[in-house]
Design goal:
With about 375 residues, the chain is an alpha/beta fold. Helices cover about 45% and strands about 20% of the residues. A hairpin with a 2-residue loop joins strand 2 (about 15) and strand 3 (about 20). The longest helix has 30 residues, at about 345-375.
Length: about 375
Amino acid sequence: MSVEFIGYVSAREQTEILDPSGPAVDPEYIAATALIHERGGFDKALVAFHSSSPESILIAQHAASVTSKMGFLIAHRPGFTAPTLAARQFATLDHISRGRVAVHIITGGNDRELEADGDHLSKVERYQRTSEYLKILRREWAGGAPFDHDGEFYRLRGASSAVSPYTSNGIPLYFGGASEEAINVAAELADGYALWGEPLANAAELVGKVRAASQRHNRSLKFSISFRPIIADTEEEAWERAAVIQAQIEKRQSVILPTKNGIALDHAGAPPVADNLPTNEGSRRLQAIAAKSARHDERLWTGVAQATGGRWNSTSLVGTAEQVAQSLLEYYRLGISTFLIRGFDPLTDATRYGRDLIPRVRALVEREDRLSSVAG
């Protein structure tokens, strides 16, 4: 089982500990970040989506223009673009980039954020729409004769596309969400299932649940897990950095914050925890895990999840590069072959991941697979 690494490319430099730097869309920063990831050995880079953020497909297009081999996992929310148009947009970029496009489907778990784009459907309705949306995407990507579609959310007549995905393998669809509705859609229609960083036992439980659901459709999914690795030359230094990061976040949340439409914003541009507690199941899982302890297994740390209410990928593996690599190997043994890793200091951390972490994990996985082959 080959291992894959996904990094993170954003429109400008900004994290929980760094104020926004530069214009809202900084082409030079996008290019620099993409090149650091490609040269560091990342297979793909995620381009995120939010109701107030710059458009993810356009950010990915610019990043693809300055790179030659790294792929892009483009976050996309179903329902705001017609599925036929979205299919053509992704297929077009797939041709421009020579087959480097993948799509990360995010149905959305925060009602207030979705309402900012005019979406007032219930959670159940959103996943029903997502299922219909993905079926139309796949149908248009398949090519062939024009087709009609009569569904609950879309009615199409003579839909067709002059552009299909660049390769016969198509455009991979990754899927996030830990609710029953999300798992059911992923099991039937996704190629990869993404979960946030959880303790090994919790991750194994969720992987098993998704795997069983996909088997009911005679399908097999890849699994991806997300972490914010905190690496230093010694374990003590790594934990010291983790404590500093948590203190910085807590301090920043305590100061007077800017507002948008009368709602206070945190330093990542989103409403703070008290005003905007997420309702999605993935965040609830992180909240429950963080409430039990700040540390799990050998080096999983939930300090940022505690500070932010588990609203996004916020759990870390803390230690030396060798220690974090060994921890990632434990997740690989659960059947998780893709690691989405991004840091709190984006450029510096991505450089270090490429230099110190990724080669170690690849070597460990290669050895693991070789030993398994001999034992088998």
